[in-house]
Amino acid sequence: MTSRFTLSILIDGILGKIFFVIGFVCLFVLLLIMLFLFKEGVPIFKNVSVGDFVFGARWYPTSEIPQFGIFPLIVASLLITILASVISVPLSLAIAVYLSNIAAPATREIIKPMIELIASLPSVIISFFGMVVIAPFLQEKFDLDTGLNLFNASLMLAFMAVPTIASISEDALSSVPVSLKEASYALGANRWQTIMYITIPAALSGIWAAIILGISRVIGETMVVLMVAGGAAVVPQSIFDPVRPLTSNIAAEMAEAPFQSLHYHALFAIGIMLFVITFIFNILADYLSNKYKFKS
Question: DSSP string covering 13-64, please?
Fold first, then answer.
């Protein structure tokens, strides 16, 4: 018995050190990526002020007098993120509530893997569907000049975010102690009252984390917005206007930018902007997860 106990302590110590090394390596790699981004992106600000870069309304990097204003790109990214979130979050939470509290076990075992399977679809396939099916439909039904626009991109990104938000939210809702639900029923609450006032508030930490992760995927997605957003670097006047988000701008122009040119450094500066936005979302996710963490 003593030897087994000693062996268990030894294994725990070894595994702890292995996980520490893995975590440290991940942190070190992230630091290197951040340093590389800033090294390649900061030089643009020797020629363009931060204010002109962030709030400039014109992006013409190859004109005779280059202009590096990314405000239309930021607006496009934010609008697509907001619209995709408005579509995906309510749908995902409805799916999660149904699977965790209403669906029969057999139904849940079928539907949940099918939803999670959507997350494995390559983004280029979803983008292709948006181009050849959704774009012509929108163009015909709404009499548009093009179906490749902000709304189309938001629909496709919402479709991609649903599996992440729904799956993690369902896990959070299912982990709520049964005793809480039974106490609610014992006090006379019905199923929907229990879901709304007991189950969801108790699972808010996981739900918020799911929402932030889903939104983070929307912000960082490149292929969808590159193929179906339209590619116009202008501030949209409606949800049916073509746009060019930050990620698609990097993907579309990096291969054409001469090495170490102003255009090259400007694209890396856009990468810095995306890094900052993602970092803020991660901080927000951690804050909300801790704020609404269930305490028994």
Answer: HHHHHHHHHHHHHHHHHHHHHHHHHHHHHGGGGGTS-HHHHHH-S-EETTSS
User: How does pLDDT run across 62-119, given as a tens digit for each residue?
Assistant: 888 888 889 999 999 999 999 999 999 999 999 999 998 888 888 888 888 888 888 8
CB atoms within 10 A of CB 199: 20
Distance CA 280, CA 166 (A): 22
Burial class of residue 142 (count of CB atoms within 10 Å of its CB; 0-12, 13-18, 19+) = exposed
**pLDDT on residue 292:** 62
With a CB cutoff of 8 Å and minimum separation 6, the contacts of 215 are: 81, 84, 85, 161, 281
| Helix (H/G/I), strand (E/B), else coil: 243 | strand
Quick one: what percent of the chain has pLDDT higher than 90?
Answer: 30
- Its pTM stands at 0.86
Contacts of 252 (CB under 8 A, 6+ apart): 226, 231, 244
CB 155 within 8 A of CB 130: yes
pLDDT tens digit sequence for 152-195? 999 999 999 999 899 999 988 988 888 888 888 888 888 888 88
The tokens 């999670």 sit on which residue? 116
183 CB-near residues (< 8 Å, 6+ apart): none
Alpha-carbon span 126 to 103, nearest angstrom: 28
Question: E strands of the chain, at which residues?
Answer: 59-60, 67-68
